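Problem 12. The chain below contains 201 residues. Write out its predicted structure in token notation.
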Amino acid sequence: RAATTQRVTAMGIAAARLAGLNQRLRFGAVGNFEYVKTGLKLGDLYGNRFSIVLRDVTALDEAVKTACEELAQGGFVNYYGRQRFGSTSISTDKVGLQLLKSNWEEAARLILCPRPGEKDEHSAARLAYQETRNADKALRDLPPWFHVERSVIEGYKRHGKDSHSNALQAVARNMRLMYVHAWQSSVWNKMASERIKRYGS
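Solution.
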């Protein structure tokens, strides 16, 4: 549970119109508007800053003080969390690895295949496309917020069912990069764990 803020840029829309979103947003708000010449892009983030609050701590004051001092002196191992890898059984780093290996067919298959835990109608739409390769039906059945899946299917529809590379090119570049970055993050986590195993925390 966290209260978070994030900077975003929007092109071609007035600040007053964006402010109108606050009448409809339930768990968030937009504000602190300013006009800039260039939009934010991948790589512009310098880092994150956190203010952490611990409540209902039952440890002795001395133990808390010691823990805080050790943390200030030695820091902690910073893992990438679930947000980087997605919340389905087919994590984004698996797709990223296949992209790095130029295994376009497998990368596309991982994006499109059914996965446990999603709604039955979504799995059914994925499975139907897997079996029939009927792009028009899949695009009718998949919800509009399945942006990546729809882009891949539209790519196959445009270039042919065996044009795996072209189908993946239909996915927005920043999204394709996100898959690759997820694999890099997975490597980081494995190396961080190996470091702890060898040298301690």
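Discussion. The mean pLDDT is 91. Students who got a different answer should revisit the alignment rule from Section 12.3.
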